[in-house]
Amino acid sequence: MSKRRKAQPILQDCPCGLPAAYADCCGRLHRGEVSATTAEQLMRSRFSAFAVRDEDYLLRSWDPETRPADIDFDPGLRWDRLEILSATAGGPFHTEGTVEFRAHYRAHGTPGELHENSRFRRDQGAWVYLDGDIEN
Ligand SMILES: [Zn+2]
Question: Can you tell me the mean pLDDT for 7-22?
Answer without folding.
Answer: 80
